[in-house]
């Protein structure tokens, strides 16, 4: 790969030295990429490009770290019509039903589309909770599509079963599925130390939502996975009426002796519900485990209010994510809007209930930018490698068109990227030193072709689903989900 010099652009990045609630100063720089890393960040027009380097003129451009999506089911770009579902409804109709009907070829297309959607909006790293590990072929196709897309991904294979039977509905933790998934995890981990492609952009993680079903099995799986160096380990933690079956997970992992600094709890909503277990905050902080919040769908599906800024105040690692691209936006921008304005709204509401107003918004827009970049890298336990633009870090970079319709009137990139940008303003995306979006267009794949395939596989899946009464599935799943509805 040739070296790349980003010349004279306005750099927006947090570093570990900046307070999460501060506003760092954007500055005009040259940024040099050699191989997969950033090798120089210096005054504008001061860096001599190596011979053969590609020079990108960044006047009127903003240079920022790629977003880190800490919780996404990437393959679910395949599965439409989820926009109005609650969490329990989603569980019953999607992971408990649709997932079991997918073929490995469906997964390839959904996964490829999901990775490209992320890249197009400037998300360069994914923590992918892959809960369609139905067969070795499903797993292999998911890896293939992810590697082909060019995104950086921690592909977390799930160790859990799909339903034993769709009709009548039965769900169990099947031994033969467990055996297959454990064999795949071992094989993939041992092949190249968990690197799923030669340049290490895609690595192996574990998704584990069956903790508590069988404590001996939990111990066996988790100790083997940690022995094999598989990281991170991610699991859902919701609690409350919509997510009763996944409540108090931090406490449960700790009590079982499984809680460590490689864990990522998705949502953590239980910490904001009635009757929270307040000891869990301390357990999170002491262990170094993190929260992956997905504010847009948490608000819409009934998880509860995002607990993100409470994590920031308490010094618990926290990042943002999308969860499912056909429930909410494919992009990180709405996640930043929702988390920021929900917190501001909460503060305003609390004060006004006491007859008070507020003179200044102390939660600044830049704080949401940090959550989506360096905060995400911290939450994914990889902030020594990505999340900020500094010499020695991997070159995962987004270049924004600062003269665009959305951004042309805005001079501060932290505020502009948080509240005004969209994927249309993401002009260039670089992952691991490779340009994967250029002049507003994806480089490795032709999106229109992928979209055609996506529609074809959605139709095939829809034909299978047509024979199933999803409302009956929902009713049958309610006892498993421990859902109490009105
Ligand atoms: Zn999820």
From TrEMBL:
Name the record gives this protein: Metallo-dependent hydrolase
Transit peptide as UniProt keyword: no
Superkingdom, taxonomy of origin: Eukaryota
Native source organism of the sequence: Neolentinus lepideus HHB14362 ss-1
GO MF annotation terms: hydrolase activity, acting on carbon-nitrogen (but not peptide) bonds
Taxonomic path: Eukaryota, Fungi, Dikarya, Basidiomycota, Agaricomycotina
Pfam families: Amidohydro_1
PANTHER family: AMINOHYDROLASE SSNA-RELATED, CHLOROHYDROLASE FAMILY PROTEIN
Start and end residues of each Amidohydrolase-related domain: 63-436
Keywords assigned: Hydrolase
